[in-house]
Automatic annotation (TrEMBL):
<dbReference type="InterPro" id="IPR036865">
    <property type="entry name" value="CRAL-TRIO_dom_sf"/>
</dbReference>
<dbReference type="GO" id="GO:0016020">
    <property type="term" value="C:membrane"/>
</dbReference>
<dbReference type="GO" id="GO:1902936">
    <property type="term" value="F:phosphatidylinositol bisphosphate binding"/>
</dbReference>
<feature type="domain" description="CRAL-TRIO">
    <location>
        <begin position="92"/>
        <end position="211"/>
    </location>
</feature>
<protein>
    <recommendedName>
        <fullName>CRAL-TRIO domain-containing protein</fullName>
    </recommendedName>
</protein>
<dbReference type="InterPro" id="IPR036273">
    <property type="entry name" value="CRAL/TRIO_N_dom_sf"/>
</dbReference>
<dbReference type="InterPro" id="IPR001251">
    <property type="entry name" value="CRAL-TRIO_dom"/>
</dbReference>
<dbReference type="Pfam" id="PF00650">
    <property type="entry name" value="CRAL_TRIO"/>
</dbReference>
């Protein structure tokens, strides 16, 4: 039987997320612990030389600068993901590392996240991984298990793959979440929501190359990974 050790820092993160509503914070924390029990493969076996590809090839990363309101920006480029080279399991590990470790930062704990999703996709490459189980895991993990919240999702280059996923999940997404999703007709529309200085050049912004592998290496220290989602020990 496994026992879980939860550090004080993680407890405070969940309390801040729910504005010190103890019941809501504890419910979210229990969700995370259960997620780790059910999907241990997401929380073990991580190797920096593999996970770092998500930043090097711009699959899923954080932009280096915050919004004026203090939100950190999570950036996803679906078309840069080649499942034959970077497996679904590795992608799930990336999600767990990034969406938990980013909340070690106090400003992110307080202000939360926004997401820019470049949904351009080759359906022949991606559709077979868009099962309801995978999509629900993505929803459940990012909405109900992390110690922080996304305030908005900005989708550009809407593709058949993305429309299929959205349609499949439509019946279970709460109205509050649906209102957070903004589907833009052009990439330049992002500049109506974000300062031009912090948006990558590919979207009409002024942000040139950036590299967060230094941050990733730090949060992937073995001691940090052992505590990810709570430290499990044998009774």
């Amino acid at each position: 039987m496994l026992e879980v050790e939860i550090g004080d820092d993680l407890i405070v993160q969940f309390l801040r997320c729910e504005k010190y509503n103890i019941q809501e914070a504890f419910s979210r924390l229990k969700n995370l612990i259960q997620l780790k029990r059910d999907h241990m493969e997401m929380f073990t076996g991580q190797k920096y030389e593999i996970i770092s590809k998500t930043c090097i090839y711009n699959i899923a990363t954080f932009l280096p600068y915050r919004c004026p309101d203090g939100c950190a920006i999570f950036h996803v480029c679906l078309d840069n993901w080649f499942p034959d080279e970077f497996s679904v399991v590795e992608l799930k590990r990336v999600g767990a590392i990034m969406l938990l470790q980013v909340f070690q930062d106090l400003m992110t704990q307080v202000n939360g996240l926004k997401a820019i999703i470049n949904a351009k996709s080759n359906p022949l490459r991606h559709l077979k991984y868009c099962s309801f189980q995978n999509l629900y895991l993505m929803y459940h993990g990012s909405q109900l298990c992390i110690p922080g919240k996304f305030h908005s999702y900005h989708v550009v280059n809407m593709s058949f793959t993305a429309r299929f996923c959205l349609q499949l999940m439509k019946t279970i997404l709460p109205e509050e979440l649906k209102r957070k999703i903004h589907i833009h007709d052009s990439t330049e529309e992002l500049l109506d929501h974000f300062p031009v200085e912090i948006i990558p050049e590919e979207y009409g912004g002024q942000l040139d190359r950036y590299d967060i592998t230094g941050w990733l290496k730090k949060v992937m220290d073995p001691e940090e990974l052992e505590k990810l989602g709570g430290k499990f020990t044998n009774l």
